[in-house]
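Q: Entry one of two.
A:
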Amino acid sequence: MSDASGAGRGPSSGRRARIACAIELPPDFRVEDILAFHRRDTQMLAERVEAATLHKGLAWQGLPACLTIRFAARRAEAELAIDGAAGADATGALRRMVAHMLGLTQPVEVFEQAYHAHPQLGPLIARHPGLRVPQSATPFEALSWAVTGQQISIKAALSLRRKFIQAAGLQHSGGLWCYPDAERVAALSDAALRAAGFSQGKTQTLIALSGRIAQGELPLDDWRAALPVDDMRERLLAIRGIGPWTVSYALLRGFAWLDGSLHGDVAVRRNLQALLGADEKLGEDATRQWLAPFSPWRALVAAHLWRLGA
């Protein structure tokens, strides 16, 4: 495992690239939702939020990079500083990544128009108009985070995430550690992940997942373009340690698929109980049945339930 002294950083000299783009934002865009999503780790190892600016370390074509997004009125200005060459179509790729991260590909206006008068959902929509689901920078980040967070608290998951990022050993020259790509994780040993605090089961799942992605068996970029959900679900569920909740959460956070039924999510069940005024806790079956009529928006409904009480 690389330590924080600088091992694993990008080159201290040599070629560095900077690319930039600007994206117009809709009138109801919720900047704070994006900043809050990336502010979860108070130790700011790989993400740093300052006022209306996000800095995020990530792997860009295997190289350490720092993404900066500055929010102004109706506008997001993005810059990517890469410890190396940018590669082909870098500006277009940056624009697509940022639009995805900000949830701008999600047709939330259609959902809100359809359900603004619903007796339960209508008040939630009115409280949080324009609610989008903030996205991970890459599908692999969403998948690996979903595996990391299985059956542990958010505090424990964030601690494990930090150790995972450091175990991968990719640090930008500006100081932020970078969330790794699948190829880098596939090169890690079981011992490195176990030393970072992963259970044997999660270690094996992450190694199998990253290995299949690195070998092209799970074409995440192609999937994000076409979204063949049934095929995606089948192939992911074939990996030991990945279950329906992990798939639905990863499809939501990594692919902006808004129809995953997150009936197994504890917060969704708890907040739905409060919304319905039910005296007894709602089980997974009851929550699944309540969400079912809202297809193809079930995951977006879950996102509104997450915000209940916020």
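Q: Entry two of two.
A:
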Amino acid sequence: MSSTIVSLTDIHKHFGSNHVLDGLNFAVESGECVGLLGHNGAGKSTLMNILAGTLPIDSGEMRIGDRKVAAHSVNDAHLSGIRCVFQELSLCPNLTVAENVRVLHHGLSGWGWRKRAARLITEKLDEIFPDHGIRSDAVTSDLTLTQLQMVEIARAFTEVDVPVKLVLLDEPTSSLDSTTADQLLNYVQTATARQQAVILISHMLGEIVRAADRSVVMRDGRVVATFNRGATKNELVAAMGNVATETHGSAPARTSNTGELRVDLAVKGERVTARKGEIIGLAGLAGHGQTEVLLEVFEQARRGSSIANGTAAFVAGDRVRDGVFPSWSIGANLSISATPRLSRAGFISLESEAALGQAWRERVRIKTMDMNQPILSLSGGNQQKVLFARALAADADIVLMDDPLRGVDIGTKLEVYRLIQSEAEQGRTFLWYSTELDELVYCDRVYVFRSGQVTGCFSADEFSEDKVIKASFEEVAL
């Protein structure tokens, strides 16, 4: 018999005048995977924070099992067996992997707790992500973003004194390649078979269709549709209210470009090239040298090297660590790249800064009425729009994108795709690393990386998912 782990009735949550949750009703049963969908700003992450105990509700009723909860806290969530993996990872960078497990489990105490913590996380990593290659004594600041995501996921499923009943996964595959994402989805089935429950938030509709026993669609802070297993991607997109259909795989044809050479970089004997107006994709399993290429191009452009002919702007994939200035306003985060042309006699013109922010707010549709609000008041997708606007406002010749659309909903993605294509037609060059193969169809040419070398290069008419996957696992495919 299934039992209700948590239920929410008529939940309301405000942030100032912004009504984020508006009469939300939601429940999770043991042994089920619930897919949670909705565009950025629909209220999904706020719901996650309420369940995790990091945000209080303004009104409504919350029950955990048969118990009515008056004041839900992080400690109450933990003692109730509720774990959360947020989209913005929360590991302590100065601690080892094993020590981060101790942060979650206070029951790991006394003589030999480090060995017990190391064994606990290693066994869970082995179970979820075979061949992960992560040492329990590694300092987390030395790990890649993919490894950090794997550790955080594995830690959420570990048990010490309290059994795990519900795990909330907010965009858990956003930093994983296709292989590790597949391993995680397989483990979700294992977890639900053990009568644990999982809430899966993912912008990858194929993951929801595959893993979810029930799919819940949110819009404007409410549940607007619920589907049992078997719902199609088109049904889910329609329920989200997206005006555009899912167009992955059907990008407009692009003519070959013979403009000025912008990038000419040697990579293990092969050359990665990009001409004026081209969109160049970098593919392959995560952590195989793609980010290093982007950073090298950025550095060479800064030095004025012939390897990168022109100025460059960088759009980070890890917006928390490498992107936003969290204590700054939306407008200040956007305009910092344009500081030189906004300055007069060493002083920034506030009127020019405000006009720049307003122009880009309208152009990329940043969901705010006040650019002076803190950047963290925006949803993750809208924060990412700010980073794109910052790069484009810099008037750079080359825009370097380090998997920047991870965790972003399909509606926002389509807006960004159109913006990239429009800017490329005006002569800007894009180097775009993506872990999502669907995004690479927008590129003129795709380079596949493995172990720091290029193992495949495919033009737009040659590109296919099978070819990229094959090149990702072979030594040389050229």
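A: Comment on entry two: The CA atoms of residues 421 and 447 lie 19 Å apart. The chain has two domains: 4-240, 261-473.
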